């Protein structure tokens, strides 16, 4: 079970990131749980300054850019 | 029979607790429609003004200004390494440098307004501290490229420049003041250092600079206005502007092939319609310009890697901003009218509250700007309307400086990051700074 968190205050890029991550996880067929973190203090808690950011199992994998589905697949594998 | 009826009635009873909102909405819409002042001169005129203003923007500002500006803003998001800018705003950053970088980095980092607040919070808690964070917060929304380009184009070069320069200078002043006022309570930094993204593709700085210079050049020369006299240096630039623009476009094409990695047969194919149209309709260069934009879009959008990302980020910006801008223009037209015309709001209200360059007018404009929420770029058409309704130049600049940087919703977010006291101080500083800059500008221009 992977825990995927999307950090971002809710801008279009963050929403796109969430969509991409969901598609990637579905296509890989892995068991996952997704959470959107929109609170700025919580985002800071991850040490992330540039949103959107992708966190997998508590580790920041991407920040400040929007990866496509293939890139997220590589991160999730 | 009686029982059945009763049962049925119970089932069909209106659930007022849930439905009252829908009813209220219907009643409000009905009352508005019933009393719609169609036929009254002021209202009919306002509708006409709104449509006329939309038409004017569509004709004057979209192909030559807005679309190229989207490409430039998109390119900034992709080709300029944001991580390398953030390096100067990190925890160990040189303080003097941090203020300088914070005051101008908005043009690079804040292409999307929603990135300003996380960056602000990050700079404050994990990076260079309150001063540079406040400087960034103030300058960020005001100096993003799209805003400066559209301000310069619609409201005039002077006020566009004043907006950029004013935002940079006063962001440093506000940052320093915030630092001095609260120097005794710099908080302990967060434990974990900020995680910054890896710097992207490393292209030599001069290449990136030349690439952006070509794009900005195209934007500037394509929009070169006709000077008043038909002789002299400015006029000769004006009469050759399309030749210069075409030259810059060719240069940009070469750079796309040489540095960005687009293969040249595809680029040549995409450029072909534009060249043919330029030869066929030399008196309508806009046709050729539009064809070139379409060609560039086709080439970049079907390309993998950086060119594809460039198109996607430009497209995302356009998709996000255009509807807001459209509504902003409609609203500005309906409420304020075109120059010399009247909208719903009487011009003498405007000239009474923000006309001239009095202290009250500047203060009113900056307070109103601070609390009002402007969706990205909509401040420009609204201000255009206000100016044509009699707003002074000083108050206009005051509103531009206080407006996009602050709004009630973002004050609340700022408060959650730095607390009530610092937020109040910051808002007061912005309002006072904006009003005094407006006063100063209005007195000299």
Summarize the structure.
The complex is a heterodimer of chains A (77) and B (445). Chain A has 77 residues and is α+β, with helices and mostly antiparallel strands.
Instruction: State the low-pLDDT regions of chain B, or none.
Output: none
Shape of chain B: globular
What's the pLDDT, averaged over the residues of chain A?
85
Number of helices of chain A: 3
Number of strand elements of chain A = 4
Strand content range of chain B: under 5%
Major beta sheet, strand line-up of chain A? 2-1-3-4
Write up this protein:
The complex is a heterodimer of chains A (77) and B (445). Chain A is α+β, with helices and mostly antiparallel strands and 77 residues long. Chain A has one domain: Glutaredoxin. In chain A, 40% of the residues lie in helices and 27% in strands. Chain A is built from three helices and four strands. In chain A, helix 1 crosses helix 3. Chain A is globular. Chain B has 445 residues and is an all-alpha fold. Chain B is 75% helix and 0% strand. Chain B contains 23 helices and no strands. In chain B, helix 4 runs antiparallel to helix 12, helix 10 packs parallel to helix 20 (379-388) and helix 19 packs parallel to helix 21 (393-402). The longest helix of chain B has 31 residues, at 306-336. The model of chain B has no long low-confidence stretch (mean pLDDT 82). Chain A binds chain B through residues 8-13, 16, 40-41, 43-44, 46-51, 60, 62-65, and chain B through 82-83, 86, 112, 114-115, 117-119, 121-123, 125-127, 190, 192-197, 316, 319-320, 413, 416-417.
Provide the descriptors you would attach to this structure in a database record.
heterodimer, A: about 80 residues, alpha+beta, Glutaredoxin, four-stranded mixed sheet, globular, B: about 450 residues, mainly alpha, about 75% helix
List the helices and strands and how they pair.
The complex is a heterodimer of chains A (77) and B (445).
Chain A: E1 2-7, H1 12-28, E2 32-37, H2 40-45, E3 53-56, E4 59-63, H3 69-76
Parallel strand pairs in A: 1-2
Antiparallel strand pairs in A: 1-3, 3-4
Chain B: H1 2-12, H2 16-34, H3 41-60, H4 62-79, H5 82-86, H6 95-104, H7 106-109, H8 116-126, H9 130-142, H10 145-155, H11 157-181, H12 205-222, H13 232-239, H14 241-260, H15 264-280, H16 285-301, H17 306-336, H18 347-354, H19 359-371, H20 379-388, H21 393-402, H22 408-418, H23 420-444
Helix pairs in contact in B: 3-4, 3-17, 4-10, 4-12, 4-16, 4-17, 6-9, 6-11, 8-9, 9-11, 10-11, 10-20, 11-21, 11-23, 12-14, 15-16, 16-17, 17-20, 19-21, 19-23, 20-21, 21-23, 22-23
């Amino acid at each position: 079970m992977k825990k995927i968190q999307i950090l971002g205050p809710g801008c279009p890029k963050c929403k796109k990131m969430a969509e991409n991550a969901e598609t990637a996880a579905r296509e890989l067929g892995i068991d996952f749980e997704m959470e959107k973190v929109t609170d700025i203090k919580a985002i800071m808690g991850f040490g992330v300054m540039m949103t959107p950011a992708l966190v997998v199992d508590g580790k920041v994998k991407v920040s400040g850019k929007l990866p496509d589905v293939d890139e997220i697949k590589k991160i999730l594998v | 029979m009686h029982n059945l009826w009763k049962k049925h009635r119970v089932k069909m009873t209106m659930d007022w607790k849930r439905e009252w909102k829908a009813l209220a909405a219907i009643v409000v819409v009905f009352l508005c429609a019933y009393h719609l002042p169609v036929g009254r001169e002021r209202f009919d005129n306002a509708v006409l003004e709104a449509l006329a203003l939309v038409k004017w923007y569509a004709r004057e500002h979209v192909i030559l200004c807005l679309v190229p500006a989207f490409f430039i803003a998109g390119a900034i998001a992709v080709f300029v390494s944001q991580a390398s800018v953030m390096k100067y705003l990190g925890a160990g950053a040189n303080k003097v440098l941090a203020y300088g970088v914070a005051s101008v980095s908005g043009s690079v980092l804040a292409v999307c307004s929603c990135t300003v607040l996380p960056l602000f919070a990050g700079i404050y808690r994990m990076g260079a501290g309150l001063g540079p964070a406040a400087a960034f917060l103030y300058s960020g929304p005001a100096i993003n490229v799209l805003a400066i380009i559209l301000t310069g184009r619609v409201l005039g070069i002077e006020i566009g420049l004043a907006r950029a320069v004013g935002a940079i200078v006063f962001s440093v002043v506000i940052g320093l003041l915030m630092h001095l006022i609260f120097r005794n309570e710099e908080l302990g930094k967060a434990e974990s250092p900020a995680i910054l993204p890896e710097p992207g593709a490393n292209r030599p700085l001069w290449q990136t600079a030349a690439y952006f210079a070509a794009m900005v050049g195209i934007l500037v020369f394509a929009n070169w206005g006709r000077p008043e006299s038909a002789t002299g240096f400015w006029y000769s630039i004006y009469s050759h502007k399309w030749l210069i623009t075409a030259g810059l476009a060719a240069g940009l094409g070469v750079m796309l092939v040489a540095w960005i990695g687009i293969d040249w047969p595809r680029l040549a194919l995409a450029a072909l319609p534009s060249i043919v149209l330029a030869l066929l309709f030399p008196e309508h260069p806009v046709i050729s310009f539009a064809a070139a934009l379409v060609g560039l879009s086709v080439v970049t959008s079907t390309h993998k890697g950086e060119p594809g990302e460039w198109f996607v980020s430009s497209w995302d910006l356009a998709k996000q901003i255009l509807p807001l801008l459209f509504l902003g223009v409609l609203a500005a037209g309906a409420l304020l009218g075109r120059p010399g015309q009247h909208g719903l709001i009487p011009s003498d209200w405007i000239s009474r509250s923000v006309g001239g360059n009095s202290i009250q007018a500047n203060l009113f404009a900056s307070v109103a700007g601070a609390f009002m929420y402007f969706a990205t770029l909509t401040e420009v058409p609204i201000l255009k309307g206000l100016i044509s309704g009699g707003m002074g130049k000083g108050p206009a600049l005051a509103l531009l400086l206080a407006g996009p940087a602050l709004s009630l919703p973002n004050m609340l977010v700022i408060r959650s990051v730095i607390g009530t006291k610092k937020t109040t101080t910051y808002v007061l500083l912005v309002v006072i700074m904006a009003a005094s800059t407006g006063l100063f500008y209005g007195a000299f221009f």
